[in-house]
Amino acid sequence: MMLVLATLYWGISFPVIKALQELNHNLLPGGSAAFLDAQTVAPRFALGFLLVLLFNWRQGMPRRAEFIQGFQIGAFAAVGSLLQSDGLRFTSASSSAFLTQMSAVLIPAFLAIRHRRSPRLAVWLACALVLAGAGILGHVSWQQLRLGRGEWETLWASAFYAGQILSLENPRYISNRAGMVTLSMFGVEAVLFLGMAGATAPGAGALLLPWTS
């Protein structure tokens, strides 16, 4: 049930982020691409950090291994989110959602290279079904789908998302607490994007726009 809900909110995030980008651009048309991208996703991770902290504060501080895993996952996710967010400015939400699903193909391909053996045929069939389903549900137009800047950035984002998932299944972190790892992950992402927004802001007032709109 949790995975179904996660997938639901993940799917909703594509049109929401696209709408936020347009809103931020209208609020600050002179802002740089880096600033607008950071401002689009920084509130998302900052609020995520606060919510996870609210439900897990009794567990104390993350242990060293939990922070390291959270940092790895957060770094992969941050780069993926930045590429995906910037790519959304140059492509449709449906194309972005479809191309992001390439991570489902990259993960078994990476594992096949690492273990030097191909996954079962059923795995590759499942990958094909994932891509077909994402294309159908997203109403992807095969005639209009072209690999421009937005599409290439989204493909690179899917590679970093694949790295995020592979970091999750690392056996050395099997005893880590999920809540503390998630808290560390959101904290890393929030700090990175808030720092990026602060470094590229055209003025102090611009930093408040996403929070007041």
Percent in helix: over 70%
- Got a strand count? 0
- Category from helices, strands and their pairing: mainly alpha
What would you report as the Rg, rounded to the nearest angstrom?
18 Å
Major sheet description? none
Residues in β-strands, percent: under 5%
- Ends apart, CA distance between termini: 33 Å
Give the H and E element order: HHHHHHHHH
Account of the protein in words:
The chain is mainly α and 213 residues long. It contains 9 helices and no strands. Helix 1 (2-27) packs antiparallel against helix 2 and helix 4 (93-100) crosses helix 7. The longest helix is centred in the first third of the chain and has 26 residues, at 2-27. The mean pLDDT is 83.
Question: TL;DR of this structure?
Answer:
The protein has 213 residues and is an all-alpha fold. It is built from nine helices and no strands. It starts with a helix and ends with a helix.
What's the arrangement of secondary structure elements?
Layout: H1 2-27, H2 33-56, H3 64-88, H4 93-100, H5 103-115, H6 121-137, H7 149-168, H8 178-200, H9 209-212
